[in-house]
Design brief:
The protein is an alpha+beta fold and about 350 residues long. It has 3 domains: about 50 residues, Molybdopterin biosynthesis moea protein, domain 2 (Alpha-Beta Complex), CATH 3.90.105.10; about 220 residues, Hypothetical protein af1432, CATH 1.10.3210; about 55 residues, no CATH class. A 5-stranded antiparallel beta sheet has the order 9-8-7-6-10, with no helix packed on it. Strand 6 and strand 7 form a beta hairpin. Helix 10 runs antiparallel to helix 11. The longest helix has 19 residues. The chain is globular and about 65 Å long. The two termini are about 15 Å apart. Fe (ii) ion binds next to loops.
Length: about 350
């Protein structure tokens, strides 16, 4: 199995993972052979990449830290919450809390797995997936920090609802591709306070979750908004969610730019540790991210091209790879696997976007 850009799909390729819409409906099922009209549909929905099964990726499993079904159910609930708010209806957050509990439970079991975000989101569903991903990434960090389960649940709910205040902002401003005017940026900034009020008034939700919404755009150096809090004056949940928020946004396709590779997003976070982010939490956060996710194509120092087969959490730059070509790019008749951990003369030169 490997991930492929939708624009590079060819009729006859076999889908390796089911694609859902944000309301939980199956758009295309696993195992389906892609036909031109399916590919067109994916392109129309602006689903930027999908997973396929083919010969070079045979036997490779791209599993994420949570089950796709769990993610999907959470996305569906977040969507309902957002819709209720938009229509001025009362929101029942019990379902959301239950999903967070499920996410926490699953993440406990997969704490040795690196985050290999594998959601296939349509552009129009960006916000819903983003909220769930931020919850997953935040809870994962909380587990690494040894947080108690009850704290993980509050962190998860706060992360899930961190951007809820956005529903009160004109979405044309959020989706604007050009530069924002000062006035527009001031409006966007208000989503933090709006979110605080919305979450604070929810029944059976810890007030800490509301503070996550309020503080997730504060910066460690005090240059954030809305209050310009700094350092440990920002609640640790909000300092974690700030990292998760930026990481997920950078690695997703946005109207104004293409997705950044995990490798580059991690570099960005580390570079901003101490200014935008808490440097200690940044180190913990990036430990959980696969910089060369399973199924990624890489070029080795020998110029041979390979695909990542498995990753090693303790040695993230030295995964097991399947070498597919000679140094001159000629396809090998018999690809072979190489554990970079035991092959000190080999290293990864860089990621190749498509093979
Ligand atoms: Fe935000």
């Amino acid at each position: 199995m490997r991930r492929i850009l939708t624009q590079n799909l060819v009729s006859g390729m076999k889908l390796a993972k089911t694609i859902y819409s944000s309301d939980g409906v199956i758009l295309l099922g696993q195992g389906m052979e892609l036909r031109p009209q399916y590919i067109k549909r994916l392109l129309d929905m602006e689903i930027m990449s999908v997973f396929i099964d083919d010969e070079i990726s045979q036997g490779i499993e791209c599993n994420d830290v949570i089950d796709e079904r769990t993610r999907m159910e959470a996305v569906k609930t977040v969507r309902e919450i957002v819709q209720c708010h938009t229509m001025g209806k009362t929101v029942d957050v019990r379902k959301a809390k239950q999903h967070v509990n499920n996410i926490v439970d699953e993440l406990f079991y997969s704490k040795d797995i690196l985050v290999n975000m594998s959601d296939l989101r349509a552009k129009s569903d960006y916000t819903f997936y983003h909220m769930v991903n931020v919850a997953v990434l935040s809870v994962m960090t909380g587990i690494s920090l040894g947080y108690h389960e009850l704290n993980l649940r509050d962190l998860g709910v706060g992360a899930l609802l961190h951007d809820l205040g956005k529903v009160k902002i004109d979405e044309n401003i959020y989706n604007k591709t050009g530069k924002l005017t000062d006035e527009e940026f001031e409006q966007i900034k208000q989503h933090a306070s709006y979110g605080f009020d919305m979450v604070r008034n929810m029944e059976a939700v810890n007030v800490l979750c509301a503070h996550v919404a309020y503080q997730h755009h504060e910066r460690f150096d005090g240059q954030g908004y809305p209050r310009g809090l700094r350092g440990k004056g920002i609640h640790d949940f909000a300092r974690i969610v700030a990292l998760a928020d930026v990481y997920d946004a950078l690695t997703a396709d946005r109207p104004y730019r293409k997705a950044m590779l995990p490798y580059h997003a991690v570099e960005y976070l580390v570079a901003m540790g101490g200014t935008q982010f808490d440097p200690d939490l940044t180190s913990v956060f990036v430990e959980n991210i696969a910089i060369y996710p399973v199924g990624t194509f890489v070029e080795l120092n020998t110029k041979e091209k390979a695909i990542v087969v498995t990753v090693n959490k303790l040695h993230k730059t030295r995964p097991v790879v399947r070498v597919l070509t000679e140094a001159d790019g000629a396809l090998l008749k018999q690809p072979f696997e190489l554990d970079l951990l035991n092959s000190p003369t080999y290293f990864i030169n860089g990621i190749i976007e498509e093979f």
